Amino acid sequence: MRTVHLLFMSTLFLLAGCVPSLHALYTDETLVFDPAIEGRWQQQDNDYLWEFVPDAESKSYALTIHEGDDTTSKLIAHLVEIDGQRFFDFYPDRDSPAEIGFWAAVHLVRTHLFLKVHDTEPDIVMSAMVPDTIDKLLKDNPERVRHERLEDRIVLTDTPSGLQAFVTAGLDIEDFFSEPGTLKRITESEPNGP
Predict the structure, then answer these.
(1) What is the per-residue DSSP string for the chain?
(2) pLDDT tens profile 94-148
(3) What's the CATH number of domain 31-185, 2.40.128, 3.40.50, 3.30.420, 2.60.120?
């Protein structure tokens, strides 16, 4: 039986029940580039190693998350700035390998995940949207943001501008974002990891 490596589901330490989006959070006007993100980072609650390789021209980062046991997730990360607040938009890399058959693969849809970025120096500190809070908000007011309910999860379907309004409004809503998680920079004098 083949193992499916869900590119980010088991990877991102903050995303126990992520809130995916069909569309990006960023627009050309909201993309920013921060050279401080480049490098290797150790996730603080496990052994995952995050490696950001910048592409200044496209204002993006190739992100490889080494999860141990020779398992990696390859994503494209974009840093988004909206009204002075920063967010990551993670998206699976097209070339990321997954062990899956053709018939299963045609049913998978690559989605974006958004994280609130609290800081990038000296550590990367970020928070994910809390699925239970998002679920309650959208049950109470489905017009907050366009979305679909698929079985037991919500998938955001709004435009980038609608998504931007939603996540920035969430900054003022209790438990919209999780408690922050931290990535610590690995310096040259520290062990290299994977």
Answers:
(1) -PPP--TTTTT-TT-TT---BSS-S--TTTEE--GGG-EEEEETTSS-EEEEEEETTTTEEEEEEEEETTEEEEEEEEEEEETTEEEEEEEE-TT------HHHHTT----BEEEEEEE-SSSEEEEEB-HHHHHHHHHH-GGGS-EEEETTEEEE---HHHHHHHHHHHTTSTTSBPPPEEEEEPPTTS----
(2) 876 666 677 777 777 889 999 999 999 999 999 999 999 999 999 999 999 999 9
(3) 2.40.128
Could you tell me the pTM of the whole model?
A: 0.86
pLDDT number for residue 13: 35
- For residue range 50-61, list pLDDT tens digits in order: 999 999 999 999
Q: Residue ranges of the domains in the chain?
A: 31-185
